[in-house]
User: Which sequence fits this backbone?
C-alpha cells in the first residue's frame, strides 16, 4: 500500500521533471518584447479599385500609375476596334515618408488635372491595445481644363477648381478580408448651375477579399447624399480583381464611373451600372513601383 | 526500501526544482536568408531572433517573428509577409533541437550537428544543421549556414516570378548567448 503511494508520487515527480524539460520553446516565446504589431497590407494597393484606400506608400517609393477606362458608345454600329472610347489617367505618387504620400496626375477624356496629399493618421494594431482601425486623411485639388458649356457660368481658373476630402477608415478583419468606410466632402468653387449644390457629401464603402496568394476581389460603392440637380447622376460602383505581384500591381474592374478623379467620379457619374453599351466601363489600372530608397 | 525511495524522491525533486544556471539566452540573434538567381538577388535580415540553449540537456530552441525580417525593398517585405510566408496566419518560425555529442566544458570552437524539428509557414520538417559552437569563458556563440527548399514548406511562387525566386534558400545565423536569469 505504502509502496503504491510512493510509486504514484514518483510518477508525479518524474512527470513534473518531464514537463519542465519541455518548455524551452515556451520559455523564449514568453521573452518576446511587447511591441505593437501593425496590420500589414490592409488593401496593399493605394486604390481599392477606383477610389483611394487607407494605404500610403513607404518612404522613397515612387509609383507610376496608368489608369484606363474603356467603353462603347450606345450607337448601334461603330467602326472602333475593341472599344469605342477610352480615357487614361497618368499619374505619379511618391512617399515623402512612411505616413505622407504626394500624388498628381492628368486624365485624357475629361481633361482634369489633380494633385493630392494623403496622410496616414492611425494604423490598425493586431495585438492587444492600440487602434482597431486604420485612419488616413486624404485631400485633393483638381483643375478642370475644359471649358463649361454653360456660357453664363463664371469660368476663371479659380472657378474650375474642386476639392475632395476623404476620411478613410479601414479595418483588416481577417488576413483575407478588409473593409473601408470613407466619409467624403466635395467642394466646387463654382457649381456651374445655380440649382446645383457647391458642396456635396458622400460616403464610400469598399472591401477586399483575398482569394489567392496574389489575387483579391475588390468592390466599391459611393453614395452621394445631395446629388447634382441639373443632370441625372448615379452612384459610382465598381467590381474588380487586383493582382499583386512583384513590383507591378494590376487592377481590373467593371464600373459605371468614367472619370478617375474623386470629385468627378463620385458626383458626376452619369451612367448607371449595367451591361448596356455606354454604361459598362471596363477599367484597367497598372501600377509600377520603383524603390528610390532602399533599406540598408 | 521506502528509505531509498524517499532519498531518490528527494534527489529528483531537488534536481528538478533547483535553479537552472545552465541556460543561456539571446534576444538579438541574427538570421539572414538569401535567394540567388540570375535575375535577382533577394536578401533579408532578422536581428530580433530569440534563442535559448540548455547545456544540461544540450537542447536549443529558436523562435522568431517572420514580420521582423527586413528586406532591401519595402514592397518585397510586404509581399513576403502577405503572399508568401503569410505572417498573419503563421507569425512565427521555430526550431527545437538537440546538439549531438556536445561537451559544453570545452573552451574554443567545435563543430557539431543539431537535430530537430523546424517549423516555418505552419509546416514542420526535421532538419540537421551543422553548427560552429564557440565557447569563450562561459559565453557561447552559435553560427552556421544551411539550405531549405521552399517547396518543403509549401511556399508557392507564381509562374511569372519563378525565375526571380530561388527554389533553395540559404539561411545563415549567428546567436551570441548570455546567461539566462529568470
Assistant:
Amino acid at each position: 500500500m505504502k509502496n503504491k503511494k510512493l510509486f504514484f508520487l514518483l510518477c508525479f515527480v518524474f512527470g513534473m521533471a518531464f514537463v519542465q524539460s519541455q518548455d524551452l520553446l515556451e520559455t523564449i516565446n514568453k521573452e518576446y518584447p511587447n511591441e505593437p504589431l501593425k496590420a500589414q497590407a490592409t488593401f496593399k494597393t493605394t486604390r481599392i479599385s477606383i477610389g483611394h484606400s487607407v494605404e500610403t506608400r513607404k518612404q522613397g517609393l515612387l509609383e507610376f500609375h496608368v489608369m484606363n477606362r474603356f467603353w462603347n458608345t450606345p450607337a448601334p454600329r461603330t467602326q472602333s476596334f475593341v472599344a469605342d472610347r477610352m480615357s487614361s489617367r497618368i499619374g505619379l505618387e511618391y512617399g515623402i515618408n512612411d505616413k505622407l504620400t504626394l500624388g498628381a496626375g492628368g486624365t485624357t477624356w475629361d481633361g482634369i488635372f489633380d494633385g493630392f496629399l494623403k496622410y496616414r493618421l492611425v494604423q490598425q494594431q493586431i495585438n492587444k491595445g492600440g487602434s482597431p482601425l486604420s485612419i488616413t486623411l486624404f485631400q485633393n485639388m483638381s483643375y478642370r481644363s475644359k471649358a463649361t458649356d454653360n456660357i453664363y457660368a463664371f469660368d476663371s481658373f479659380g472657378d474650375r477648381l474642386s476639392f475632395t476630402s476623404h476620411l478613410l477608415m479601414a479595418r483588416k478583419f481577417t488576413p483575407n478580408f478588409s473593409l473601408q468606410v470613407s466619409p467624403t466632402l466635395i467642394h466646387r468653387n463654382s457649381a456651374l448651375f445655380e440649382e446645383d449644390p457647391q458642396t456635396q457629401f458622400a460616403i464610400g464603402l469598399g472591401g477586399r477579399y483575398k482569394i489567392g496568394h496574389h489575387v483579391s476581389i475588390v468592390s466599391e460603392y459611393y453614395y452621394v447624399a445631395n446629388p447634382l440637380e441639373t443632370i441625372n447622376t448615379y452612384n459610382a460602383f465598381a467590381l474588380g480583381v487586383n493582382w499583386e505581384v512583384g513590383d507591378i500591381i494590376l487592377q481590373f474592374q467593371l464600373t459605371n464611373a468614367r472619370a478617375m478623379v474623386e470629385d468627378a467620379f463620385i458626383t458626376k457619374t452619369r451612367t448607371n451600372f449595367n451591361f448596356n453599351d455606354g454604361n459598362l466601363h471596363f477599367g484597367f489600372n497598372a501600377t509600377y513601383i520603383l524603390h528610390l530608397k532602399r533599406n540598408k | 526500501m521506502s528509505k531509498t525511495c524517499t532519498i531518490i524522491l528527494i534527489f529528483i525533486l531537488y534536481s528538478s526544482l533547483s535553479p537552472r544556471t545552465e541556460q543561456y539566452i539571446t534576444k538579438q540573434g541574427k538570421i539572414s536568408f538569401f535567394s540567388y538567381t540570375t535575375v535577382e538577388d533577394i536578401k533579408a535580415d532578422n536581428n530580433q531572433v530569440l534563442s535559448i540553449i540548455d547545456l544540461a540537456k544540450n537542447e536549443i530552441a529558436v523562435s522568431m517573428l517572420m514580420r521582423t525580417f527586413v528586406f532591401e525593398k519595402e514592397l518585397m517585405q510586404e509581399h513576403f509577409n502577405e503572399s508568401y510566408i503569410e505572417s498573419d496566419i503563421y507569425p512565427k518560425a521555430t526550431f527545437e533541437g538537440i546538439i549531438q555529442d556536445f561537451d559544453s566544458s570545452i573552451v574554443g570552437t567545435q563543430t557539431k550537428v543539431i537535430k530537430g524539428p523546424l517549423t516555418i509557414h505552419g509546416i514542420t520538417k526535421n532538419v540537421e544543421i551543422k553548427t560552429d559552437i564557440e565557447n569563450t569563458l562561459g559565453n557561447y556563440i552559435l553560427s552556421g549556414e544551411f539550405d531549405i527548399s521552399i517547396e518543403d514548406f509549401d511556399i508557392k511562387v507564381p509562374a511569372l516570378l519563378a525565375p526571380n525566386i530561388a527554389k533553395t534558400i540559404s539561411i545563415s545565423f549567428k546567436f551570441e548567448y548570455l546567461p539566462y536569469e529568470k
